[in-house]
Amino acid sequence: QKEVEQNSGPLSVPEGAIASLNCTYSDRGSQSFFWYRQYSGKSPELIMFIYSNGDKEDGRFTAQLNKASQYVSLLIRDSQPSDSATYLCAPGDMYSGGGADGLTFGKGTHLIIQP
Amino acid sequence: DAGVTQSPTHLIKTRGQQVTLRCSPISGHKSVSWYQQVLGQGPQFIFQYYEKEERGRGNFPDRFSARQFPNYSSELNVNALLLGDSALYLCASSLGAASYEQYFGPGTRLTVT
């Protein structure tokens, strides 16, 4: 059974600092990785995806992937109060972002950006 | 373009009743997946449909069923509702069965009393 581990938090970060969110996964076959942001009472919003080892940057967000260690992280630079949300990590397999097995989500990390 | 739409937004049902939830994917997307999210947990996969065929099923009882229509919209049915079925039901849309990114709709909040 696929497992995804995330520190549930809450993770408290001062405004303007770097927030670092971590995720480990059990399925070595996972080839694609997705980060979703979920505000309280809302549905998950896709903010980043990464397929290759290394870093991928998009604005203030950087996703880092280490397949050998089965570890993926999300860095948020210049954190803003509007970044306060739960961040969900979801590995996918090689040929579909979810597909026949769907996406397997962690419980999410609750991030609080303190003004 | 419109995103994924779901209806209804909220629903209250009694134990033993049946419920139907509806989803329309993003225009051009042919795959719909359903997820259940209970408070404090990540979404849990229920079904994936692509081109009107079931392509995947999660670990849910047979009380849960779904279908996809020629216009790629989808319905999720849950029979014999239990209190534990109370959750946010999410529909996710993607281009195809082999597409990487899934985009979620706003969800349907189901409360079973």
Classify the beta-strand content of chain B into a percent band: over 45%
Average pLDDT metric of chain A: 90
Structural class of chain B, please? mainly beta
**Mean pLDDT score of chain B, rounded?**
94
Oligomer: heterodimer
Q: Secondary-structure blueprint of this entry?
A:
The complex is a heterodimer of chains A (115) and B (113).
Chain A: E1 4-5, E2 11-14, E3 19-25, E4 32-38, E5 45-50, E6 54-58, E7 61-66, E8 71-76, E9 85-92, E10 109-114
Parallel strand pairs in A: 2-10
Antiparallel strand pairs in A: 1-3, 3-8, 4-5, 4-9, 6-7, 7-8, 9-10
Chain B: E1 5-7, E2 10-13, E3 19-24, E4 31-37, E5 44-50, E6 53-57, E7 64-68, E8 74-78, E9 87-94, E10 103-104, E11 108-112
Parallel strand pairs in B: 2-11
Antiparallel strand pairs in B: 1-3, 3-8, 4-5, 4-9, 5-6, 7-8, 9-10, 9-11
Q: Can you walk me through this structure?
A:
The complex is a heterodimer of chains A (115) and B (113). By secondary structure, chain A is mainly beta. Chain A has strands at residues 4-5, 11-14, 19-25, 32-38, 45-50, 54-58, 61-66, 71-76, 85-92, 109-114. In chain A, the strands form 2 sheets. In chain A, strands 1-3-8-7-6 form a 5-stranded antiparallel sheet, with no helix packed on it. In chain A, strands 2-10-9-4-5 form a 5-stranded mixed sheet, with no helix packed on it. In chain A, a hairpin with a 2-residue loop joins strand 6 (54-58) and strand 7. The model of chain A has no long low-confidence stretch (mean pLDDT 90). Chain B is mostly beta strands and 113 residues long. Chain B has no helices and 11 strands. Chain B has strands at 5-7, 10-13, 19-24, 31-37, 44-50, 53-57, 64-68, 74-78, 87-94, 103-104, 108-112. In chain B, strands 2, 4, 5, 6, 9, 10 and 11 form a 7-stranded mixed sheet that branches. Chain B has a 4-stranded antiparallel sheet with strand order 1-3-8-7, with no helix packed on it. In chain B, strand 5 and strand 6 (53-57) form a beta hairpin. The N and C termini of chain B lie far apart (37 Å). The model of chain B has no long low-confidence stretch (mean pLDDT 94). The interface between A and B is medium-sized, with 28 and 28 residues.
